[in-house]
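2024-03-11 09:14:02 INFO worker-7 job=invfold-0412 stage=load source=structure_tokens
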């Protein structure tokens, strides 16, 4: 069953939501402030986030922005104060999937949760492969081909390529790549990123005579859509 994270500082609302969601069969986790909310939202086993806008620590908008900035696509439903149009618009701008104004009917929230979870399942089926010209990266078989010829990559090379392709047309800093691909905090040494980009270039760019991974001077790397 899907696991839902509730980020809400008002205990009464959080408990009420927890009860209703558990009754529907969902697993529930609660975070009482923005920072904790952000940390928990980044956990891979969370399937959907219900995110209040008004939170101590980090605001809900900021939590949403950071989660998206890290490339995490978990569905987010924002809870905004009644009639606060600015918050609604800002929430959607920050990458929220949907919003509800307080006070809300629980049936409507449950319906929106089902929609958001279904959309995610459909998107997952569609996104089994990432493609870039003749390069195809298959996320289920972990196989990469160029013009239907297999490109043999190590696990890290694959993950780096996957991350760059998922963030196509966005310049990724070395720190971002290190934090997301290597899964450890940036400690000042980003050489490993350059080394792995070099491996990828040898195996793909050089071998097939293409220019896939570009260096963004002073920033990091980017894979751009072919013109
Ligand atoms: Ca609140």
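2024-03-11 09:14:09 INFO worker-7 stage=emit residues=227
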């Amino acid at each position: 069953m899907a696991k839902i994270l509730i980020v809400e500082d008002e205990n009464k609302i959080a408990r009420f939501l927890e009860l209703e969601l558990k009754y529907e069969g969902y697993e529930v986790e609660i975070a009482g402030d923005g920072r904790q909310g952000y940390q928990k939202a980044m956990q891979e086993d969370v399937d959907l986030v219900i995110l209040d806008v008004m939170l101590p620590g980090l605001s809900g908008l900021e939590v949403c922005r950071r989660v998206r900035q890290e490339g995490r696509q978990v569905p987010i439903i924002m809870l905004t104060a009644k009639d606060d149009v600015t918050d609604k618009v800002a929430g959607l701008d920050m990458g929220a999937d949907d919003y509800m104004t307080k006070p809300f009917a629980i049936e409507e929230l449950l319906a929106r949760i089902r929609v958001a979870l279904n959309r995610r399942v459909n998107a997952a089926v569609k996104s089994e492969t990432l493609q870039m010209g003749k390069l195809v990266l298959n996320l289920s078989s972990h196989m990469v081909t160029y013009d239907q010829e297999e490109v043999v990559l190590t696990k890290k090379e694959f993950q780096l390529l996957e991350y760059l392709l998922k963030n196509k047309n966005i310049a990724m800093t070395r720190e971002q790549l290190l934090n997301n691909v290597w899964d450890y905090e940036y400690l000042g040494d980003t050489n490993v990123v350059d080394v792995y980009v070099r491996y990828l270039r040898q195996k793909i760019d050089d071998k097939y005579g293409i220019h896939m991974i570009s260096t963004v001077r002073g920033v990091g790397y980017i894979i751009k859509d072919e013109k």
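2024-03-11 09:14:09 INFO worker-7 stage=report msg="The chain is about 45% helix and 20% strand."
2024-03-11 09:14:10 INFO worker-7 job finished
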